[in-house]
Amino acid sequence: MKSDNQVYMERFFFQPLPKVGLPLYYNISIYQEGDESIWTIIQNKTFENHKPKIFEEVFSSDFNKDGIFFATYKNKKVGIAAGIFKTTPKGNFFGVLDWVGVLKEHRGKGIGSALATEVLNYLRMKGLLYASLRTPVYRKTSIDMYKKLGFKIEFSGHRDSAIEKQIIKADSFAPTK
Ligand SMILES: CC(C)(COP(=O)(O)OP(=O)(O)OC[C@H]1O[C@@H](n2cnc3c(N)ncnc32)[C@H](O)[C@@H]1OP(=O)(O)O)[C@@H](O)C(=O)NCCC(=O)NCCS
User: Rounded CA gap, 127 and 124, in Å?
Assistant: First the structure.
């Protein structure tokens, strides 16, 4: 059984974002009304260790449509990524890179990096200082990808402690009144 251990990673925007090109026939598109079903299909295929989840469940509380991105190949959706705003119990906002997933047959071509970079640009344009994420320690490919995009591991340990770390950090970076 997979453990509950996660890494918590951060990436500040004073560090310039890399320019990630896409191979021929690949593009990035933004969420359109009705994309929920294709999101769910790609999510369930790429995150095969998760219980199948529906789009509404994933985005119930933090849904901001302009932070939802797809990778397309010849206009067919083959990858997903989301920039999500979360709020700490103290009411401070922070931005999370989440749900980066690319269908197996399209991996290793820079699509995941391009999707993640698109989300980072989106969060940066929203005025955030940094982006954060949590991912299970066993997802080594994704951790490598995030490191190449400038993320640093800030914490590694039980999921609950990683969540706590993420919230403490968000509160400590919140503007003082
Ligand atoms: C993680 C994931 C999104 C990467 O997508 P991708 O399109 O293959 O990523 P890229 O081609 O941009 O590769 C980025 C880096 O990931 C790593 N990587 C990609 N494919 C790899 C492979 N087959 N083996 C080992 N490392 C690999 C490499 O470090 C690579 O950088 P490089 O090309 O400079 O060597 C994809 O593997 C996936 O959907 N995995 C399942 C879902 C998941 O784990 N999501 C992330 C957790 S939130």
Answer: 5
